[in-house]
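Input structure tokens:
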């Protein structure tokens, strides 16, 4: 005997579904029901791992729902990436599917992911499927759907054959590849957002590929796109997470006019020069704001889309300034004033070249990419 330890046993074939949750009791219950249907059609073993940090009342309801559904329930940290890392550490199978607590799986999603990955070459680390947001008739939803920063990454698996990253609302990975690159970052600037982009970019840098399956669909609840507060919070969070990604992946940073930064600079300059100009310089900030608002509204204008296309375009532009505000705040937090007029490049050239059914009118570089 050589005295060497045998290699660790490989994880048995199957798929472990990892779901981070906080609150959303009814939504998670719906997800567990859809998972039961999908698991019944999957040829491989399936387990569900729910990682929760809800309040005591919601946690008790989650635990009871998981017991009824046969899912594993564990308490975990606040950070979503850390929750998912814990879920993977507990996972028993060789494949892991990441989805969100406010999603529901189509009946064939698990079957498609398992079949695709178990038959794919080893350099294929994962398969991404599209996420479709269920329609809502609220005014906020109607306005927010024009935003180039909300939900635009969800349909990338329909338009591309491969991506360098995918949202964790519908992403299946080989557990071994996930572990090789160290899992999700837990030191992001925000509790959620950006960690899925970072993971995908590290997998791609390690030589792995994420393929797309346009038919492996997940349905997303529209709740976080229905209220003004929720939409502004998401946009603000995405702006902050993008600046963190710019710092971690500096090669993907690009210059871009930031409306909030521009208005702030104009206001500061106007105040500084107010005495010399007898107050006329104070008009600089509102004039800059008006010009940028007109530009952004024009980019979001869609003739014939809804009863008030002009009003909705202006409202959407104002909503999207929450994203610019997040970028500006993050630039200050990170001590990077040069980030005040820059942003993360969400879609790279290799992904564009992998397009199969891309709409030629789609502004790929500017409007395709923010997570969740």
């Amino acid at each position: 005997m050589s005295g060497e330890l045998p290699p660790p046993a490989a994880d048995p074939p199957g798929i472990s579904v990892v779901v981070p949750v906080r609150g959303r009791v009814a939504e998670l219950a719906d997800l567990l029901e859809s998972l039961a249907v999908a698991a019944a059609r999957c040829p491989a073993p399936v387990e569900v791992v729910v990682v929760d940090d809800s309040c005591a009342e919601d946690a008790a309801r989650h635990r009871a729902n998981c017991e009824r559904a046969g899912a594993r329930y564990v308490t975990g940290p606040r950070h979503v990436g850390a929750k998912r890392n814990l879920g993977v550490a507990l996972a028993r199978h060789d494949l892991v599917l990441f989805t969100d607590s406010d999603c529901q799986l189509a009946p064939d999603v698990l079957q498609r992911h398992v079949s695709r990955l178990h038959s794919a070459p080893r350099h294929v680390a994962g398969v991404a499927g599209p996420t479709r947001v269920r329609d809502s008739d609220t005014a906020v939803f109607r306005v927010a759907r024009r935003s180039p920063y909300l939900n635009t990454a969800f349909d990338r698996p329909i338009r591309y054959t491969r991506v360098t990253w995918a949202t964790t609302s519908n992403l299946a990975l080989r557990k071994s590849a996930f572990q090789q690159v160290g899992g999700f970052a837990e030191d992001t600037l925000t509790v959620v957002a950006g960690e899925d982009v970072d993971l995908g970019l590290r997998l791609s840098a390690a030589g792995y590929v994420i393929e797309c399956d346009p038919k492996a669909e997940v349905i997303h609840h529209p709740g976080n796109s229905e209220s003004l507060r929720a939409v502004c919070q998401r946009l603000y969070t995405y702006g902050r997470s993008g600046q963190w990604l710019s710092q971690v992946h500096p090669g993907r940073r690009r210059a871009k006019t930031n409306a909030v930064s521009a208005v702030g600079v104009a206001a500061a300059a106007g105040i500084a020069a107010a005495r010399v100009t007898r107050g006329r310089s104070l008009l600089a900030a509102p004039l800059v704001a008006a010009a940028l608002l007109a530009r952004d509204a024009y980019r979001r204008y869609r003739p014939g889309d809804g009863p008030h296309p002009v009003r909705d375009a202006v409202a959407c532009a104002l909503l999207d300034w929450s994203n610019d505000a997040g970028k500006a705040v993050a630039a200050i937090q990170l001590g990077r004033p040069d980030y005040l007029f820059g942003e993360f490049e969400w879609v790279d050239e290799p992904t564009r070249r992998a397009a199969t059914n891309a709409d030629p009118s789609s502004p790929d570089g500017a409007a395709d990419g923010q997570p969740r």
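The radius of gyration is 22 Å. Residues 246-347 form one domain.
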